[in-house]
Amino acid sequence: MRVLTAPLVVILIAAAGCTSNAPNLADDEAAIRTIDSAIVAAGNAHDIDAFLEILADDARMLPPGAPPVVGKAAIRDVVIAMMSPEFAVAHHLEEIAVSKGGDLAYVSYSYELTYMGPQGTPVTETGKDISIYKKVADGSWKLAIDMWSTNEPMLPST
Length: 158
Hints:
By secondary structure, this protein is α+β, with helices and mostly antiparallel strands. It has helices at 2-18, 25-44, 48-53, 72-82, and strands at 55-62, 69-70, 88-98, 104-116, 122-135, 141-150. It has a single domain (23-150), classed as Nuclear Transport Factor 2, Chain: A.
């Protein structure tokens, strides 16, 4: 009996070693799509707290023509300044790529953003964005870095 038990144990150990703890990238991609929808919903509802909840604690925003904005407190100030009754946002996801390790992802999308312009009239801006997400200790995804730029041509330097 001992002769039969040893090969069985070896087979069971080998089979256990073949099981995968690999991340489910499709589930991660779906989770990030859901988060992107929540970002748009929070923006259109002017719900700054809901937006900030989606961010990593050390999140960075890299707006066009401005220095980086680091951390939720600083980002809150920027978002408050952007929010006006006219504020509205739409995203058109183009690509979501999740790392093989399942702990980082990037999202590429185009956007439309309406806000109060410098002359006191609503302005709609179109542009593109790259967002980087990271999976945090509880297994949820958080927006870590957001960098966007307008499709408007750059003005010549004076």
